[in-house]
């Protein structure tokens, strides 16, 4: 039976070891350390939960306890992390500048997939060796090597 975690706002969520591991990784621990902390905390949660429930604060305290023994520097970083009230996204520790999302993104295309020479969204690419388009109402000039129009 999965253990439910009672969040600060009263919501209930399933306990997920992966969330513990992810948080420990973000604090600066390496993968093996994060997995070890996650394993120990998961075992503890299964043994400690009352009526299949445990609070997020209890889990946080246990993560800190285990992480201090594995990687004290990562434990300090983990401890300084605070979630903003009313949201599930965290804020960086004091002294760490917040990151901002890129402002120049094509809709629906992640930045790493946008070709550097791609035309702006909604604009067709120019074909090589094609004459430029004429203004509306005018006939475009013929291409230099194009056959004559009939």
What can you see in these coordinates?
By secondary structure, this protein is mainly α. It has a domain at 4-80. Helix content is 35%, strand content 6%. It has four helices and three strands. The protein has helices at residues 17-26, 31-48, 56-70, 72-80; strands at residues 4-6, 12-14, 53-55. A hairpin with a 5-residue loop joins β1 (4-6) and β2 (12-14). The chain is globular, with a radius of gyration of 28 Å. The protein starts with a strand and ends in a 70-residue tail after the last helix. Residues 86-109 have low confidence and may be disordered.
Topology diagram in text:
Blueprint: E1 4-6, E2 12-14, H1 17-26, H2 31-48, E3 53-55, H3 56-70, H4 72-80
Parallel strand pairs: 1-3
Antiparallel strand pairs: 1-2
Helix pairs in contact: 1-2, 2-3, 3-4
Quick recap of the structure?
By secondary structure, this protein is mainly alpha-helical.
